[in-house]
Known about the structure:
Elements: H1 4-21, E1 32-44, E2 53-64, E3 67-70, E4 73-81, E5 84-93, E6 114-124, E7 130-138, E8 146-153, E9 156-158, E10 161-172, H2 174-181, E11 200-212, E12 217-227, H3 230-233, E13 242-253
Amino acid sequence: MHVCASLLATSLLTALPALAQASPPEAGPPDSVTIAGLGGGAVREPYRGMKTRTRVLPLLIYENRWVSVALPTVDVKLGHTGPVSWRLRTRFGFDGYKAKDSAFLAGMARRKESLWLGSAAIWDAGPLGELSVEAVADALGHSKGRVFALQYEKRFEFGDLAVTPRAGLRGVDQKYVDYYFGVRPTEALTGRPVYVGDSATQVEAGLRLTYATGKNEMLFADLSGLKLGRPVENSPLVERRYQASVFAGWLYRF
Length: 254
């Protein structure tokens, strides 16, 4: 449901906060962390006739006591309640498409990317893993939609190799689904009937692998699958019930 850049960014945001919080054993907690690198990946989109999208992206994160920047997401840290970190969140989303992206979408109006604003909370449960929740809304008013996400992940270390499985739920409201997957009366054709979307609950699962190649370097790979939910799957614009992505890259911590 996202274009390639959005899913690559999502994978990046999943990987980098944990890396930013990690310190070499001999060092104490840093006042700030900067990590940069290069990554690339591919996303199999659910839209009819849309080809698998690939992209190479520069990767950057900066984190200190007040902000966490992992473009295209910026968090302002509001403080802690025990192990829970509270944040204001802004993120540029790459959801959407242009009619030229697929022959089946010819005649459809462009569905625009947007800026999402809201809040997030991250619960670091130590050896039990990490639970995060976010609620954001379309700040530019293109879809006027809202998105809610809940995710759990746990990191397992095997020397230089770390394996982090994750699972989550994602709720998208009626306005979001209708904007990105609906078909307006002016866009309807034979084989592409009018469709009014409804709110959907989506299920996501993923696996991230990281391998330390040096004191400040590592390689990583991330695989992810998203079950779209029936109101999205029923759209005449959609030809599969899931979206899959793979993302890999190299990171260096300064």
